[in-house]
Design goal:
Blueprint (H helix, E strand, L loop, with lengths): L6 E6 L1 H4 L9 H14 L4 E6 L2 H6 L10 H24 L5 E6 L2 H4 L1 H16 L3 E6 L13 H11 L4 E6 L4 E2 L11 E2 L1 E2 L4 H6 L12 H12 L4 E6 L14 E4 L5 H10 L6 E5 L1 H8 L9 E6 L6 E5 L5 E6 L4 H7 L7 H5 L13 E3 L3
Parallel strand pairs: 1-2, 1-5, 2-4, 3-4, 5-9, 8-10, 11-13
Antiparallel strand pairs: 6-7, 9-10, 11-12, 13-14, 14-15
The structure holds glutamic acid.
Length: 367
């Protein structure tokens, strides 16, 4: 079933990767998962969001479950090293390289940082390296944390425009009644819309080691569904946890929009662009033909904005033609406007992008 997807975020819960009793890595399970990942690695771009740092590190801090935030942060700083090593060692067997990325909430909510993280992951993907991502628990305080990796994984999926998010869990999917407390619970195989009924189902099915429950998974699915990304909840505890996914061993939340249109929607619906660029006729024609905006065509500039901010593009007669994400901040554009792309490096003294707004980050208004 996963054949048709091209960019996949796999989220692994603490319960799946860490033994609840011993608080050690489930090594055999991870071997099998890595084997499964190796089967799809060549044809798909994969990012892993992996929990377990706190659970793994907690045994070095206390015999009991940790309550205090600072203890959890300390545990995460211990456990994260082990987590990263495990992934590196296990995927090495398949000659698959890994990297570690630790994110805080601001990395997905502030555009510039969002863009940075996105570019980093895309660069890793170009080199076929799998990023292993977790929340930067060691510095994340209550106010600025995702709190659970389901939401983090959904934000990552949105960030990298993944078309599939797989939430590996300790349940097969979404049930009408709590599968751990009910005999013959009824599983929901497919969801097209998250309505009140679905939200009500998400009762208190939290797991012991991780932070997520069914509710956080539904929130994650909701984020993805609005952004062209299908979400699958499935049990981690089966042979070939990824490649064996089918409608019977999972719940699929179908996305009704394509990722392309969701990005355009995001841009078109942007409420407060930080500034605008006025462009000449040549650049207007280029934009109508779906080309990028180069510095040469810019004849005016307005507002205060930074790299990564959303800005509008206006024609000579001030009519709005497009909206996009700027690759430069306002001061740099002032220096390079009207100039040739090849002059950028010399003028700015650093190697910037050729385009002020790349066509992938640009939407025309009349589209
Ligand atoms: N970031 C946490 C960890 O690595 C897990 C959060 C969660 O369970 O969702 O331990």
């Amino acid at each position: 079933m996963i054949n048709k997807f091209k960019k996949i975020v796999i989220k692994i819960g603490s319960n799946s990767i860490v033994d609840q009793k011993t608080r050690k890595i489930k090594s055999k399970w991870l071997n099998e998962l890595c084997d499964d990942i190796s089967k799809i690695h060549k044809t798909k771009k994969i990012a892993v969001v992996c929990s377990g740092a706190i659970a793994l590190g907690s045994k070095s801090i206390s015999k009991n479950n940790l309550r205090k935030l600072e203890d959890k942060q300390a545990a995460a700083s211990i456990g994260q090293i082990e987590l990263a090593h495990q992934w590196r060692d296990k995927l090495k067997k398949y000659k698959i390289g890994v990297s570690q990325i630790l994110l805080t909430l601001e990395d997905s909510e502030i555009r510039r940082r969002y863009l940075n993280a996105k570019n980093t992951i895309s660069s890793l993907h170009e080199k076929n390296i799998i990023p292993i991502i977790n929340e930067n628990d060691t510095v994340a305080t209550e106010e600025i944390r995702y709190g659970d990796n389901d939401k983090l994984a959904a934000r990552v999926a949105q960030m990298i425009e993944a078309d599939l998010l797989v939430l590996l869990s300790d349940v097969d999917g979404l049930y009408e009644n709590n599968p751990k407390k009910t005999k013959n619970p009824k599983k929901i195989n497919e969801v097209y819309k998250i309505n009140k009924k679905i939200e009500n189902i998400a009762n208190n099915q939290t797991s012991e080691l991780g932070s997520g429950g069914i509710m956080t998974k539904i929130i994650a699915a909701k984020i993805c569904m609005g952004n062209g990304c299908t979400t699958i909840i499935t049990n981690s505890n089966k042979k070939n946890p990824i490649t064996s996914i089918n409608i019977y061993n999972s719940t699929i939340f179908h996305s009704l929009v394509s990722s392309h249109s969701s990005k355009k929607k995001w841009l078109l619906n942007h409420l407060n662009p930080s500034g605008s660029l006025k462009i000449d006729d040549g650049a207007s024609i280029a934009i109508i033909k779906n080309k990028s905006l180069l510095p040469a065509g810019i004849i005016g500039i307005n507002g205060k904005f930074k790299r990564g901010d959303v800005i509008t593009i206006v024609k000579k007669n001030n009519s709005k033609i497009a909206i996009g994400i700027s690759a430069y901040d306002v001061n740099d554009i002032k220096k390079i406007m009207g100039k040739k792309t090849k002059e950028i490096n010399k003028i700015l003294g650093f190697e910037g992008r050729d385009e002020v707004i790349h066509k992938d980050n640009l939407v025309k208004f009349y589209e």
